[in-house]
Write a structure and sequence with these properties.
heterodimer; A: mainly alpha; disordered C terminus; B: mainly alpha; Sodium/glucose cotransporter; 2 domains; two-stranded parallel ribbon; 22 helices; 4 strands; about 65% helix
Chain lengths: ~80, ~600
């Protein structure tokens, strides 16, 4: 049984998004920190984007994994193992 | 000065944990050598498609394309519009049926099936060397960048280690991570992590482009702040003297598009291996086409930071005077000569001995274009998202390295070890050999990284290597797949002649403003090219043509193989697969047309 990639990927982006969002919230209004990116709270906004992306992936991945568990993929088209050459 | 905080480290650490976690999670499903080397041939097309471009998204892409963007402007987008998209469509529609259908486990193995043993041996050996070399360059570039950005300086100070160890530390760290996840999960692990890296690179670079564009005043602001030629992909391309790359349309179309682009995307096992890992014929054909969709949009992500870096104002040492309660306060911002002599955010190259900026043959300061994209990251990102940007940069190096390593272990195990060293061993044995070949390949790459290169632009170095090895290759595959009369002797002689022609061409020509030696002209200088790009592209054309002519002549003079042996390997002798059961819009051909239309639209936009 193979792992649906979207689960670890979704998890990673969710966590990264969460870290950035929380950090962005805690530093909101810190003009010195955000001067270099034109006063935009880049951490907060991009954190939210990543959070949304991560959660979507996670959701799709969980559905994919369930499907994978109920119908394992056909390994190959030829149907039998190839030996050497 | 780079100031990383715990948030940045946390994000970087999180990435490392997930990359290794995927390796450990996949270890259970690695049962046969087919699982390890070919990902069981069971992956969905979209995963393979994203891995297909991510494998190529190494140092040459993120840093090199940013560097080219800073050096040549939007003309760099030709590496996408001409150099990649048509070749990706071609390989998906016309070549994957033979790669996948022949059940070859590697590109060299396909050459053995179609031609003969010696052609395979030649290709396998040169390919193995090339992958090790590429991954070594990737490692070297990464370690040098980490040094230049002072990423680990704080960490080393805290731990009380000597800063000289940063280069080695960076190499060992990245090598160990890539080694571990491939050792555990083989090609599946490499592909999964390449997809992860793909999204991470977007996550790290998209905000950079958005902030950079906003800062410079949007698209029109960017146009106003760089020379006009920088913002046109096609204008002035008719003649070498009227465009920044110094290349004319024939060299570009033939050299980059037909020979180098196809030589890379259609024959390099580094990318083909991901398409060969997909679950069936239709998805394997769809892999390069799916890959072409994000590839079309990548100029925005990787070239634009370089152009923005050139367009932004160059920092200068400034003194601001203001009066506070009657006292005059002078605030001086000191900028190093390296930065001040540069252009925009691209610093000048400093001679490490004299500490003065290095000059070109005509007395201009030599710019360190490779720093364009990294400097953009440092300039715009505050701590937090900076950690994400640096992680994305590391991810790009790792994905490039990993693709090379898995290609190396497969070719070494199947095409060298199983064929010439130890035949007929058990499947378990070959899987173990593959794992240890991974270790060996990485050690060799580390050695290459230390034997590093003194070139201005990584892209040019890689193009040079590819033009020696890959450029003649495409002729061999083209003849092999579409001309049933081509023979093994012809293919072999053609390859040797093509590579020799590439080397000879390089030895006899020189770009202007370059010194003889690594840039060419090491035999005698018979011809001057307007740029090193032009030299590379024309070298590729010579190599391809020589291979083509020699292969045809030798093939006609040698005995043809019986047609029955070539079924499934040559276009005219392979029956068309029945595809009536697939709706027309799901067929690879429909996707290909869509991609082509999109590519043309983008080229018109960039004109």
């Amino acid at each position: 049984m193979i792992l649906d990639l979207r689960i670890p990927m979704g998890l990673m982006f969710t966590l990264t998004g969460l870290i950035l969002t929380l950090f962005g919230l805690s530093t909101n209004g810190n003009a010195a920190l955000y001067a270099r990116c034109l006063g935009i709270n880049a951490n907060l906004w991009w954190g939210l984007v990543l959070l949304a992306f991560g959660l979507t992936m996670l959701l799709l991945g969980r559905r994919g994994q369930k499907r994978l568990e109920s119908h394992p993929p056909e390994a190959t088209e030829e149907g039998h193992e190839r030996r050497g050459h | 000065m780079l100031n990383l905080t715990s948030v940045d480290w946390l994000i970087m650490l999180l990435y490392f944990v997930f990359v290794l976690g995927i390796g450990f999670a996949l270890k259970r499903s690695m049962k046969t050598s087919k699982d390890f080397f070919q990902a069981g041939r069971a992956l969905p097309a979209w995963i393979c498609g994203l891995a297909f471009i991510s494998a190529n998204l190494g140092a040459q892409e993120v840093i090199g394309m940013g560097a080219s963007g800073a050096k040549y402007g939007l003309e760099t987008a030709h590496f996408y519009g001409i150099g990649a998209i048509p070749a990706m469509i071609f390989v998906g529609i016309f070549m994957m049926p033979f790669y996948y259908g022949s059940k070859a486990r590697s590109v060299p193995e396909f050459l053995r099936m179609r031609f003969d043993e010696k052609t395979r041996a030649l290709n396998a050996c040169s390919f193995a060397v090339m992958t090790v070399f590429s991954s070594g360059i990737s490692m070297y570039a990464m370690a040098r960048l980490i040094q230049a950005l002072h990423v680990f300086d704080g960490l080393f100070r805290t731990l009380g280690w000597a800063p000289e160890g940063i280069f080695t530390f960076s190499i060992v760290l990245s090598a160990a991570i890539v080694l571990l996840y491939i050792f555990l999960g083989g090609l599946t692990s490499a592909i999964y992590n390449e997809v992860l890296q793909f999204f991470l690179i977007i996550a790290g670079f998209l905000p950079l482009v958005l902030i950079g564009l906003r800062n410079i005043g949007g698209w029109s602001g960017l146009k106003a702040s760089v020379p006009m030629a920088y913002m046109h992909e096609w204008k002035g391309v008719a003649h070498a003297s009227t465009n920044p790359m110094g290349i004319e349309i024939i060299g570009l179309g033939m050299g980059l598009g037909f020979v180098l682009g196809s030589g890379y995307w259609c024959t390099d096992f580094l990318v083909i291996q991901t398409a060969m890992a997909s679950k069936n014929m239709e998805s394997s054909r769809r892999v390069p086409l799916i890959a072409a969709v994000p590839k079309m949009l990548f100029p925005f992500l990787v070239i634009l930071p370089g152009i923005l870096a050139i367009g932004l104002p160059t920092p200068h040492t400034t003194t601001v005077e203001h009066t506070v309660n009657g006292a005059i306060i002078r605030e001086t911002t000191v900028v190093s000569p390296q930065v001040e002599q540069g252009r925009g955010l691209v610093p000048a190259k400093i001679n490490p001995v004299t500490g003065k900026p290095m000059l070109t043959a005509s007395g201009q300061p030599l710019l360190d274009y490779d720093m364009a994209t990294p400097n953009m990251l440092l300039h715009f990102f505050p701590t937090g998202i900076l950690g994400l940007g640096l992680t994305a940069l590391l991810a790009s190096f790792m994905s490039g390295m990993a693709g090379n390593v898995t290609a190396f272990n497969t070719v070494f195990t199947y095409d060298l070890y199983q064929s010439y060293i130890h035949k007929g061993a058990s499947d378990r044995h070959y899987m173990a050999v593959g794992r240890w070949a991974t270790v060996g390949g990485i050690l060799l790459s580390i050695a290459t990284a230390y034997a590093a290169i003194n070139f201005n632009n990584i892209m040019d170095t890689l193009q040079l290597v590819f033009s020696f090895v890959n450029a003649p290759l495409f002729a061999t595959f083209l003849l092999g797949m579409f001309w049933k009369r081509a023979t093994g002797h012809g293919a072999f002689a053609g390859l040797i002649a093509g590579t020799a022609a590439a080397m000879l061409h390089h030895g006899l020509t020189l770009p202007i403003e370059a010194h003889t030696g690594i840039h060419g002209g090491w035999i005698a200088v018979l011809h001057h090219y307007p740029s090193d790009m032009a030299q590379n592209f024309w070298g590729a054309i010579f190599a391809f043509s020589t291979n083509f002519v020699v292969a045809v002549v030798v093939s006609l003079a040698t005995k043809a193989r019986p047609e029955a042996e070539l079924v499934g390997l040559v276009h005219s002798l392979t029956p068309k697969p029945a595809r009536a059961h697939i709706a027309w819009w799901k067929r690879p051909e429909a996707l290909a047309v869509g991609v082509l239309v999109g590519a043309i639209a983008i080229n018109i936009f960039f004109y």
